[in-house]
Prior knowledge:
Oligomer: single chain
Number of helices: 20
Amino acid sequence: MDNAFTFFTIRAYSDAMLSEFWHRVIKNIHPYHSLAFSFLVLTATGTLLLSLPVSQQGPGARWIDCLFVATSATCVTGLVPVDIAAVFSRFGQVVILLLFQCGGLGIMTFSIFFAYILAGRLSLRGRDVIEHSVSSQPVPYLGALLKFAVIGTLTLEILGAIVLTFRFLPDHSWQHALWSGVFHAVSAFCNAGFSLYADGLMPYRDDVILNLTVMALIVSGGIGFLVLHDLGNIRKKGLRGLTLHSKIVLTVTGLLILIGAAAIMFFELGHTLRPLTAGQKLLASFFQSITARTAGFNTLPIGEMTNGALLVLILLMAIGASPGSTGGGIKTTTFAVIFISFFARLRTEQQLRLFNRGISDTTISKSIGIAIFWIMAVCAALFLLLITESYGSSAAHARGRLVELVFESFSAIGTVGLSMGATPHLSPAGKLVIIVLMYVGRIGPITLALAIANKPALTIRYAEEKIIVG
């Protein structure tokens, strides 16, 4: 009797403690904290797994490199300081794939999806987390959107893996071709940019089917799940059924792909594109234009490109993908709002309009704030990198590395993965700077700011007074 009484007393006490912990701590955790913390937990878990002997082969990897690769995979960036195929075993490569798969959709999305399937409904907290993951506003069809995001992602990745497997088959065994097809399909849709080949997809630059498949996966993952869901209903509602968000995303995405490809071809026609045929030049230009906006694959040698083409790639990396997608950047909608509002202000228009719809001043201020945060983050990172990577070097040598470090910084915060070759040569301190940039770029400035904020925003408004600007 005494043992039974003691057991039930301890159990009742533990239940009371858990209930108190739930009400005081867990229920008060904001979705922004959950999203930011989930990426930290996933990165830490990935670092631990990649550090295990079973994950490594050949020369192996140091802990800083394991942390770098885990962060890069979780943040779907693609920057790597080592050769993935040479350093990590098949088990380690599987860990990397799972990291950028979970990082692409978000570990919270997967968790809530399985809870939704089991329970048949979304909890209020789960709804808040998903809305903050894929949208900045309430979504009435959130349950359907969640299923569409997870099931649609897996479907597109499987289809892409089948096509890529057959394209890799002539050069590899069935086992290697299958694994390579799966790895690159998931990497492409998640806009991760990880490749099992040291020179990326350059050996397959002339393969039209492989290039088109990878480009289709990148664009599908980069336009966002809200847009994909809208496109799925286009047969029922037609083009008029597209939301303003979808119209902006599709328009800006199309224009960036066309303008980016034309600019790359213009600057590289007499350089990296010179030995290619007309068709190959067109294919390589479009591929590099698409992948620069967060995917990180390359079929052209980035380190040999002209300064004009590098500037184009930097601008594309800065703009990035779209909200609610697997990609990074300031996002296409943010760029559209800033770009259009600039000309609207010059014409002294009172309201910003897109597709015959007005855009609120709050959205404009938010977009400008995101862009300013990006500029400040890149400048801060560059300041640190110029100290850590140029110490003891001559001024001329340091200036020569400036372009590489600028490119690396934009690639990291844009979660792109393109590199001029500077990543493997970074010092441990420089790698830590890039690691922080990748994390900040993946969770976004708004999530980061609200996650570290200790108190709610003030609602008090003070008396206004005009100042002279311009």
